[in-house]
Amino acid sequence: MLKERSDSSGTRSGARLRRLRRTDAIREILSENRLHVSGLVAPIFVRDGEHVVEPVEAMPGINRHSVDTVSSYVGKLTDEGIKSVLLFGIPDSKDEAGSGAYSSDGVVPRAIRELKSQFPALVVAADVCLCEYTSHGHCGVLDGGAVSNARTLPLLAKAAMEYAGAGADIVCPSAMMDGQVLAIRDALDESRYEETLLMSYSAKYASSFYGPFRDAAKSAPAFGDRRGYQMNPPNSREAMREIDSDIKEGADIVMIKPALPYLDVISKARSRHDVPIAAYSVSGEYSMIKASSAKGWLDERGAAMEVATSIKRAGADIIITYFAEQLAVWLREEQ
């Protein structure tokens, strides 16, 4: 006969939660959330030039690839089970209007055509922004020293059309211009690209965690910052308004960026909406784990897996992460 047990308040309690964690097998069958390789998206930097595989100093293990070398890298990703990539372009030349972003011969359309010819089943997403292509480094065209929302929208739509025309499965507006989703969705739907998915950077915060990316993409603003159009970090109610607006404008998938400092925003969005939610585990999240593990201060595998699991637990369906290839290997090893 079992003895009656009481907790510190004197109330009878038969719960012994440690029994649920006793062995690896028990922990596995009772896992509430599971990472899966199919939900991982690998960001890729594609640059002009030929025969280029150029290490990104601030992001150990990440390279910039020219169009003629990117297929080899993506082949390795697909061998590990990665089914989706997100492309960022780095042009040789820039101008005030960011024209390289919407050129049919730009680096991203060429990379899309190359990848879709080599890997027809690969889901290819393309970032839609002007910051990598403008000489001033801001996400839109300038008017009197400030970014002009109205003048930027048609250029973002033009870029999205070029990427869809090249074969992109998903276009991803990240400029945080008001109305960017509607402008792009209308442009796609008025053409033969109505089947192209739109994944919006709906809640993109003005974050300190973007530093390594700006080094990789050579996209740091030449003056000022992006706080006038990217989100203010203390605000989460405002993020819900941004997400609500993007869904109404036609976003198929919404994104929160960065992921780790904004798990509460991911969770709040998941409770509020049934649409697919993506979370971008950004360059700073990647580089801080890499740097700490290189010093012996963190276990890289354990930390990266824990971070990805926390993003999944918060409610993300899709995790965009520079650890995608390594996570795929680790997940396979754990099977």
| Percent in strands | 15-25%
What number is the mean pLDDT?
92
For the biggest sheet, the summary is: 8 strands, parallel, barrel
Low-confidence runs: none
| CATH topological fold name of the domain at 33-255 | TIM Barrel
Alpha carbon gap, first and last residue: 40 Å
- Global shape: globular
Order of helices and strands: HEEEHEHEEEHEHEHHEHEHHEH
The helix-and-strand class reads: alpha/beta
How many helices in DSSP terms?
11
- CATH 4th-level superfamily of the domain at 33-255: Aldolase class I
Which features does this protein show?
335 residues, alpha/beta, TIM Barrel, two-stranded antiparallel ribbon, 11 helices, 12 strands
Brief sketch in words of this structure:
With 335 residues, the chain is of the alpha/beta class. It has helices spanning 24-29, 67-79, 107-118, 149-166, 180-189, 211-217, 237-249, 263-272, 283-294, 300-314, 324-334, and strands spanning 40-47, 53-55, 63-66, 84-90, 123-128, 142-143, 146-147, 170-173, 197-204, 253-257, 277-281, 318-321. The protein has a domain at 33-255: Aldolase class I (TIM Barrel, Alpha-Beta Barrel), CATH 3.20.20.
Explain this structure to me?
The chain has 335 residues and is α/β, with parallel strands linked by helices. The protein has a domain at 33-255: TIM Barrel, CATH 3.20.20. 38% of the residues lie in helices and 17% in strands. The chain has 11 helices and 12 strands. It has an 8-stranded parallel beta barrel, surrounded by 9 helices. Strands 6-7 form a two-stranded antiparallel sheet. β8 (170-173), α5 (180-189) and β9 form a beta-alpha-beta unit. α4 packs across α5 (180-189). It is globular.
